[in-house]
């Protein structure tokens, strides 16, 4: 049976193809955020753990969270810029944490530097640098500016191109069903 010159089979096929495309698009752009415990089982401590080597062995992507676990009576966490990091300085801190179980959302691509401000800790290796990459290209590090302090976490969203593509599919579907 045809309505407005379009058969019901064509409408069903169009709807089916739109749904398959939408499902494929969502499955290919969904990125699962990870909670990455700084120092793995050692946590954030001064017990000879090599945080530089640890960080170099990790991949950090937008949407991930750094989790700092430590004794808050002995340590803290400061996020600083590159120069402050080299000098183990907290004068121009970007953020500080001191609960002993701090979660830092990686909300944008770029370099981030962390250190402990307790006297002698940074100088003895309690510091590290990471490079956070965009979620869609988490296998390829990017040359991007320094990340700013995190303000909120959240699930990654679809890119504007993907959103536009979905909108066009459903607009085309709506037009074809008229």
From TrEMBL:
Signal sequence interval, chain numbering: 1-33
Keyword Transmembrane helix belongs to the record: yes
GO terms for biological process, alphabetical: response to symbiotic fungus
Pfam families the UniProt entry points to: Cu_bind_like
Subcellular location: Membrane
Chief site of localization: membrane
Residue span, Phytocyanin domain: 34-134
Topological relation to the membrane, as annotated: Single-pass type I membrane protein
Entries under InterPro entries matching the protein: Cupredoxin (IPR008972), Phytocyanin-like (IPR039391), Phytocyanin_dom (IPR003245)
Keywords noted in UniProt: Copper, Disulfide bond, Electron transport, Glycoprotein, Membrane, Metal-binding, Signal, Transmembrane, Transmembrane helix, Transport
Gene Ontology MF: a single term: electron transfer activity
Domain of life: Eukaryota
PANTHER family documented for this protein: BLUE COPPER PROTEIN, PHYTOCYANIN DOMAIN-CONTAINING PROTEIN
Protein name: Phytocyanin domain-containing protein
Taxonomic classification: Eukaryota, Viridiplantae, Streptophyta, Embryophyta, Tracheophyta
């Amino acid at each position: 049976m045809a309505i407005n010159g379009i058969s019901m089979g064509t409408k069903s096929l169009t709807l089916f193809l739109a749904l398959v495309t939408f499902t494929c698009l969502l499955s290919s752009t969904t990125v699962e955020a990870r909670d990455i415990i700084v120092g793995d089982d050692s946590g954030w401590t001064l017990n000879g753990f090599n945080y530089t080597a640890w960080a170099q062995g990790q991949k950090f992507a937008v949407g991930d969270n750094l989790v700092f676990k430590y004794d808050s009576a002995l340590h803290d966490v400061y996020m600083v810029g590159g120069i402050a990091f080299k000098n183990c300085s907290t004068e121009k801190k970007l953020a500080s944490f001191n609960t002993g179980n701090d979660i830092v959302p990686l909300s944008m691509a770029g370099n981030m530097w962390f250190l402990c401000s307790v006297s002698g800790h940074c100088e003895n290796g309690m510091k590290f640098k990471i490079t956070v990459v965009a979620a869609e290209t988490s296998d390829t590090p990017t040359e991007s500016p320094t990340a700013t302090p995190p303000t909120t976490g959240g699930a990654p969203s679809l890119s504007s191109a993907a959103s536009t593509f979905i909108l066009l599919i459903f607009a085309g579907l709506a037009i074809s069903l008229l």
